[in-house]
Amino acid sequence: MSGGCGLKAARSCSPHSTRPASQPLRDNAVRCLADGGQFLRRFDATSVTDGTIVVIDLELNPDMMRRWLRDQGIVNQSKVRVIPMRGKARSLNFALPNVRTKWAKFLVDLGASAVLLDCMRPILDALGLSEDKDAGKFLTGFDARGGHHRRHGHPPYGPLG
Fold first, then answer.
1. E strand segments, the chain
2. Which of 28, 38, 115, 137 is the most buried (most CB within 10 A)?
3. Taking a C-beta distance cutoff of 8 angstroms, is the pair 97, 106 a contact?
4. Tens digit of pLDDT for each residue in 64-110?
5. DSSP state of 8
6. Which positions ≥6 away from 103 have C-beta within 8 Å?
């Protein structure tokens, strides 16, 4: 990390990430990151106080994704940026340095403090990687995306709503 901006990545895997149950899990995490409260009605969560929560979704169409997130009752919707990537999984090959650099700059320009990627399977399939043998290669590239000075920009998809 450089320039005093720490972009944090946390790996979280749902064993049923390709089932519809993963969206409520993701949306609950987004609500907790935006507003605080109870994650899964069990764990106290602290909201992101500086920066935005970026959701990169590879499965839902943009309208459905925004509707599902809206159903979570997120108060601080302006903290959330939705990046619909359905049909564009191949463009997320974070093993390639130029892709990591492009996405790192994009995330910094959004002021990302938290990034949720839902889900890996379309990316692994598009890149011809095996979920049980090659997922680590993808995650290593994703974790290596880096950080730079944070600039406040306007994301292309705006807040939910």
1. 37-39, 43-45, 52-57, 80-84, 112-118
2. 115
3. no
4. 887 887 888 899 999 999 999 999 999 998 888 899 899 999 999 99
5. B
6. 92, 94, 145
